[in-house]
Design a protein that fits this description.
Number of strands of chain A: 9
CATH architecture of the largest domain in chain B: 3-Layer(aba) Sandwich
Structural class of chain B: alpha/beta
CATH topology of the largest domain in chain A: Alpha-Beta Plaits
CATH architecture of the largest domain in chain A: 2-Layer Sandwich
CATH class of the largest domain in chain B: Alpha Beta
Largest sheet of chain A: 5 strands, antiparallel
Strand order of the largest sheet of chain B: 3-2-4-5-7-6
CATH topology of the largest domain in chain B: Rossmann fold
Helix content of chain A: 25-40%
Number of domains of chain A: 2
Number of strands of chain B: 20
Radius of gyration of chain A: 21 Å
Strand content of chain A: 35-45%
Number of helices of chain A: 5
Distance between the termini of chain B: 90 Å
Distance between the termini of chain A: 47 Å
Bound molecules: thiamine diphosphate, magnesium ion
Oligomer: heterodimer
CATH class of the largest domain in chain A: Alpha Beta
C-alpha cells in the first residue's frame, strides 16, 4: 500500500517471532495487580501464568483495603516486550482483577523486599558476618553463641548481594518475602 | 419487601428473573433440592440428558442459535467433571453459558466426601469465571452476576457451585434490579481516533479484505447487518472463519468464502496478498494464519475485538480497536459516510479481477462418481434440498465438518453451530438437540462423521423423549477420516488406529432408540433418502455410505503459509480435462 507510506512487511512479525529469545531480549517487569479479595483469586492469577507458560520471579499478596475487599498482588515477571503486554492483557481479563499497573514503565517506583538470613559460625567468620551486616544495615533479630538471624530490608539485588557474601560465612537458611512495590511521588 | 426462601427456590426464582425457559441437566444427590423445586413449577422446561457432556453441548447449541445464554444443571463430583469438555468448548468458542453444579454440604467440603470434587478448582481454567457459594444470602446475587459475566464483554461459560446445605437454608431473595451493578463492565465503544485512521486506510486501500469471525455473530444481529452494509457500500471482499459463517451472506456479492486450513483458495490468497486486512471479531487462530512469519506479509492490519488480550497475541497489528463489533462498525460507517464514502474504485476493480482469477481455479472441484457417493456430493444435495428452508446446521468434528463448511451456504447468522476452537468430536448431536429445543418448528440437521457421532450417541434418547425431530446426517466413511487424511499425507500412509471398526447398524440403532433410520449407498438414491429424512416427523438417522478415502481440499498443512496450499483434484482438473478433450 505505497500510497499510505507504510513499509511493506512492517507488520509481519508476530508474538511467536517476538518470543524467540535470540530475536529480542527478555525484560523484567514489576506488576501491581489490584484484585477483589475473593476466594481463589490468587489461584486464578497463578493458574494463568502456569497455563500460558509465563514466568513468575517473585510474588507477594496481601489485603490492602479491608472495607473495599481489595488485595494487592505484586509480581515480578520476565519476558519479551510482547509477552509482557500479553501478560498484562490476560491479567486484566480475569473478572475479579480491578487494575493492572506496570510499575516498570509507569515511571519511577520503589521496590523493597525483606529477608531473614540465618548464619552459623564461630570465630573470625562470625565477626566478619556481623561486620558485613552492619555495612548493609541489617538488624540482628536472633542470636546464639554459634548463630545469628539477620533481618535485611532493601531492593532484591541488595538482598542477593548480602546472601552471596554470607554464603562462605555460614549462611544456613534464608527466607525472603518477595517484592512489594509502589510508584514514587504523590 | 424481602422474600425469604430456600436456596433451591432462589435458583428457580433467579433463573426465571433472567428469562430462562430451558435448562439442560441431570440430577444427583447434591442437587436434589433444586430438582424438587423444578418439579413444582411450570415456567422452566428441564431437558433430561443422558450424559452431562451432552447437556453442555445442548446449552451451547441453544445459546448459539438464539443469542441467549444456555443453562445447565448438574450434580457434584462426576456430574461436574463430565461437564468439563463442554465448558472448555464454550470457552474456546466464546459461548455464553451458566452452569449450576451441586456440591457436598459446606461442612463436608475438604473431607473427600461422597461425590466431592474440587469443582471450582477443576473448572477454573475452563470457565470465564466461577463461584463457590457458601452462604444462601449471597446465592441470588451470585446467579444474577453470573448471567452478567457470561453475556457481557467476550461471552463465555461461567459456573456456580452450590453446596447442598446452601440449597436447603433460607434467606432473602434479591432480584436482578436489587443488586449493586456489577463491577465487571468491559468497554464497548472503540477509540474514535483509531476508527478514523482505519477509515482513511479503507478509503485508499488497493487490495483490502474484511476478515470476519465469530465475534460478529456474538455481537448480535445488528453487527451482522452493519457488516453487510459496510461490505456492500465499500465493495470490499469478505471472508470468514469457521465460526463466523453466516454473518455475511454466502449469497452476498462480496463473499469470497471461508478462509483457513481448509478454506477456499481465493480467500486464502486474498488474505496473503491484501494490502489492508480488517479483522472483525476473529482472533488469528493458528488454523487461520498458517506459518506466522509468512502470514499476509505485505498488509497493514487492523483488528476489532472486544477482548484486549486478543490484540497482538499472535499477529502484530497496526491498528488495534478494542470494542464491541456492533458499536465499532456503527462508528466506522458513520465516519466513512461523513467523509464522503470514498474508496479506491480503480484499484478495487483490479483487486476483484485478481480474485476472480483465483476463483476460476475452482478449488472445491472433486471427481464425481456414478457408483459411490462422494461426501462433497452428499452435501451438495443436502444443500440443494434444504436451501431456502428455515434451517439450522450443527456438525461433529472431522472431514465432514470441513466439507459442510465448504458446501453448505449460510445467509444468516446463528444458523451454523460447530466446535471450532476445541474441535470436540461429539458436539454435533447434542448441539442439534439444543438448537431444536429453541426452534421447535425449524429443520435442524447434524452433519456427522461415523466416529464423532458415536461419542455422544446416547443423546438420541433425549431427542426421542422430547420429540425433537433432529436429523442426523452421517457421512459414514468407516474411518476417522481426518486422522486418516493426515496419516496419508504426513505419516507415510501408516493408518494407525484410524478405522471405525465394528460400527453399529445405524438403522437398528435408530429403531432401538425408538426413532427412524435409513441407509443410502447409491448416488441415485441419495435425493430420495435425504427427502425421506427431511419429511419424517421425528428424529431420523441417515447413514450415508460415502467414499472411504476421499481427502478434504484445499488444505494448508500445519505450519505452511497461505500460498502453499494443497489443492487435490482441483490441481489436476485442467490437465485431465485437457487430455480428455484431446482424446475424443
Ligand atoms: C474428542 C476428540 N477426540 C479426538 C479428536 C481428534 N480427531 C479429529 S477428527 C477425528 C476423526 C473424526 O472421524 P469422523 O467423525 O468419522 O469424521 P470424518 O473425519 O471421517 O469425517 C479425530 C479422531 C477430536 N477432534 N476430538
Ligand atoms: Mg468418518
Amino acid at each position: 500500500m505505497n500510497a499510505l507510506n507504510i513499509q511493506k512487511g512492517a507488520s509481519s512479525h508476530s508474538a511467536y517471532d517476538l518470543r524467540d529469545p535470540n530475536a529480542q531480549v527478555e525484560e523484567s517487569h514489576t506488576l501491581a495487580v489490584l484484585v477483589e479479595n475473593e476466594p481463589g483469586v490468587l489461584a486464578r492469577v497463578i493458574g494463568l501464568f502456569s497455563g500460558r507458560g509465563y514466568n513468575i520471579d517473585s510474588l507477594t499478596v496481601a489485603e490492602v483495603d479491608h472495607t473495599g475487599h481489595q488485595s494487592r498482588i505484586t509480581m515480578v515477571t520476565s519476558g519479551t516486550p510482547a509477552v509482557i503486554e500479553q501478560i498484562k492483557a490476560q491479567l486484566g481479563r480475569i473478572v475479579p482483577v480491578h487494575d493492572v499497573h506496570d510499575l516498570t514503565v509507569e515511571g519511577p517506583s520503589v521496590e523493597r523486599e525483606l529477608g531473614l538470613f540465618k548464619v552459623r559460625g564461630q570465630g573470625d567468620k562470625r565477626v566478619e558476618a556481623l561486620r558485613i551486616a552492619e555495612i548493609f544495615r541489617a538488624n540482628v533479630v536472633d542470636s546464639t553463641l554459634e548463630s545469628f538471624v539477620f533481618e535485611l530490608v532493601g531492593t532484591p539485588s541488595k538482598l542477593d548481594a548480602f546472601a552471596e557474601l554470607m554464603r562462605p560465612l555460614g549462611l544456613a537458611d534464608l527466607a525472603r518475602t518477595g517484592v512489594a512495590a509502589l510508584a514514587r511521588g504523590a | 419487601m424481602s422474600r425469604i426462601m430456600t436456596g433451591a427456590r432462589m435458583v428457580i426464582e433467579a433463573l426465571r428473573d433472567q428469562g430462562v425457559d430451558t435448562v439442560f441437566g441431570y440430577p444427583g444427590g447434591a442437587v436434589l433440592p433444586i430438582y424438587d423445586e423444578l418439579f413444582q413449577q411450570n415456567d422452566i422446561t428441564h431437558v433430561l440428558v443422558r450424559h452431562e457432556q451432552g447437556a453442555v453441548h445442548m446449552a451451547e447449541g441453544y445459546a448459539r442459535s438464539t443469542g441467549k445464554p444456555g443453562v445447565v444443571l448438574v450434580t457434584s463430583g462426576p456430574g461436574a467433571t463430565n461437564a468439563v469438555t463442554g465448558l472448555t468448548d464454550a470457552l474456546m468458542d466464546s459461548i455464553p453459558l451458566v452452569v449450576l453444579s451441586g456440591q457436598v454440604p459446606t461442612f463436608l467440603i475438604g473431607t473427600d466426601g461422597f461425590q466431592e470434587a474440587d469443582t471450582v478448582g477443576i473448572t477454573r481454567p475452563c470457565t470465564k469465571h466461577n463461584w463457590l457459594v457458601k452462604d444462601t444470602a449471597k446465592l441470588s446475587e451470585t446467579i444474577h452476576k453470573a448471567f452478567h459475566v457470561a453475556t457481557s464483554g467476550r461471552p463465555g461459560p461461567v459456573l456456580i457451585d452450590i453446596p447442598k446445605d446452601v440449597q436447603f437454608a433460607e434467606d432473602a431473595y434479591q432480584g436482578p434490579k436489587q443488586i449493586d451493578p456489577p463491577r465487571y463492565q468491559p468497554v464497548r465503544k472503540g477509540d474514535v481516533t483509531a476508527i478514523t485512521r482505519l477509515v482513511e486506510l479503507i478509503e485508499q486501500a488497493e487490495r483490502p479484505i474484511l476478515y470476519t469471525g465469530g465475534g460478529v455473530i456474538n455481537s448480535g444481529p445488528g453487527a451482522s447487518q452493519l457488516l453487510r452494509e459496510l461490505a456492500d457500500a465499500t465493495g470490499i471482499p469478505v471472508t470468514s472463519t469457521l465460526m463466523g459463517l453466516g454473518a455475511y451472506p454466502a449469497s452476498g456479492r462480496n463473499w469470497i468464502g471461508m478462509l483457513g486450513m481448509h478454506g477456499l483458495y481465493e480467500a486464502n490468497l486474498a488474505m496473503h496478498g491484501c494490502d489492508l486486512m480488517v479483522n472483525i471479531g476473529a482472533r488469528f487462530d493458528d488454523r487461520i494464519t498458517g506459518r506466522i512469519a509468512e502470514f499476509s506479509p505485505g498488509s497493514v492490519k487492523a483488528h476489532i475485538d472486544i477482548d484486549p488480550s486478543s490484540i497482538n497475541k499472535v499477529i502484530h497489528v497496526d491498528i488495534p480497536i478494542i470494542g464491541d463489533v456492533g458499536h465499532v462498525l456503527e462508528d466506522l460507517l458513520k465516519i466513512w459516510k461523513s467523509r464522503g464514502r470514498k474508496v479506491n474504485t480503480a484499484a478495487l476493480g483490479k483487486w476483484w479481477e485478481q480474485i476472480e482469477g483465483w476463483k476460476s481455479k475452482n478449488c472445491l472441484f472433486y471427481r464425481g462418481s456414478d457408483t459411490i457417493i462422494k461426501p462433497q456430493f452428499a452435501l451438495e444435495r443436502l444443500e440443494a434440498l434444504t436451501k431456502g428452508r428455515d434451517r439450522y446446521v450443527t456438525t461433529e468434528v472431522g472431514q465432514h465438518q470441513m466439507w459442510a463448511a465448504q458446501f453448505l451456504h449460510f445467509d444468516e447468522p446463528n444458523r451454523w453451530m460447530t466446535s471450532g476452537g476445541l474441535g470436540t468430536m461429539g458436539y454435533g448431536l447434542p448441539a442439534s438437540i439444543g438448537v431444536q429445543m429453541a426452534h421447535p418448528e425449524s429443520l435442524v440437521i447434524n452433519v456427522a462423521g461415523d466416529a464423532s457421532w458415536l461419542m455422544n450417541m446416547q443423546e438420541m434418547g433425549t431427542a426421542v423423549q422430547f420429540r425433537l425431530p433432529v436429523k442426523q446426517f452421517i457421512l459414514n466413511n468407516e474411518r476417522l477420516g481426518m486422522v486418516r487424511q493426515w496419516q496419508q499425507l504426513l505419516h507415510g500412509e501408516r493408518y494407525s488406529q484410524s478405522w471405525s471398526d465394528s460400527l453399529p447398524d445405524f438403522i437398528k440403532l435408530a429403531e432401538a432408540f425408538g426413532c427412524k433410520g435409513a441407509q443410502v449407498q447409491d448416488p441415485k438414491d441419495l435425493d430420495d433418502a435425504i427427502q425421506q429424512m427431511i419429511d419424517y416427523d421425528g428424529p431420523f438417522i441417515l447413514d450415508v455410505l460415502v467414499e472411504k478415502h476421499e481427502n478434504c481440499f484445499p488444505m494448508i498443512p500445519s505450519g505452511k503459509p497461505h500460498n502453499e496450499m494443497l489443492l487435490g483434484d482441483a490441481e489436476t482438473q485442467g490437465a485431465i480435462q485437457g487430455a480428455g478433450a484431446a482424446l475424443v
